Amino acid sequence: MSDNGVIRAGVVGLGWAGQQHMAALHAAEGVELVAVAGKEADARATLAEQYGVATYEDWEELVARGDLDVVSVAVPTYLHAPISIGALRAGAHVLCEKPIARTAAEGQAMVEAAREAGRVLEITFNHRRRGDIEAVRAAVDDGTIGRPYHARAMWLRRAGIPALGSWFTNAEMAGGGPLVDLGVHVLDWTLHLMDEPRVTTVSAVTHAELGPRGLGGSGDVKHGTGSAYEVEDLATVLLRLEGGGSVVLETSWATHRATPDEFGITLYGTEGGADLSVVDYAPAGELTIFSGHGSEQLDTPVTAEAGRGHVAVVDTFLEHVRDPHTWAEHDGTVGLSRAKIVDAAYASAAAGREVSLDENLDIVGGAA
User: Which residues belong to any copy of the GFO/IDH/MocA-like oxidoreductase domain (predicted)?
Assistant: First the structure.
């Protein structure tokens, strides 16, 4: 941090997510956005003019500057671990896009690097910062819902495979399909709303029916690899929770279903419930809170604010960076816990059976 207390920031990744980080960092008080890195020459030129920043083609050059207090990582998943670890070892605090990495093993290496460096590592779960998700959380906190014990949560697309033939559909580069891409958001907001219960068993099934036939694609190929379709296009997961709770999670990139895309959650609690549906990526979804018993049943529509998404995530990350006493608390373990559950889901699907997790969310006895 500079002598005047200004946080010097860099961003790796020039796509939509990276530009969300740039805008939030540029707007934050006491922060100077000084450098960005990415392969796209046109985007580098545009951003250099827009923000007056130094630009680099390679992330190693940005990290090698040695004067950055924070680095945002918003790149394809296979690059999350090497860039985050490199930035942490260079002394920067890191905010990395979800998922933490392709696998829990890579995520564990990132967490260990953060601990060794004594730096903050946080993962961008921006959907829990939506206004409608926060409204459900408020109903949990004020006792309206009581103790949440079951959830049905989903993110479903009809034709939304990000880019057929790109890194998204390459198993080695992406780590998986919609479960690791969209499902990790669904998993995060669900466990967040349920007060972070420990997952004890995972049972999952994955399907790849449309993608391998070249169906269900959306958008232009970016970072193209010419890859065959190697990941699932639909996944369904059952989680058993410590204390008897449960979660059913469903996520797809491509399915023959209603248009447009939809995500949300139905939450059942001992005193009430909630149903949230977000259609076509609306800033705020349709939310109803259920309460009462017998003839006193009450269905309350809630109009939620849009929420601040990436801006809220970046602001919270900066708050943690400014308070050295909290650095050890923010070492990426939340993102790692999500990765372990996703890994367990893929292991269950591959083995065709339920797998059990220990208190560290590691698979008991392997998945074979």
Answer: 134-273
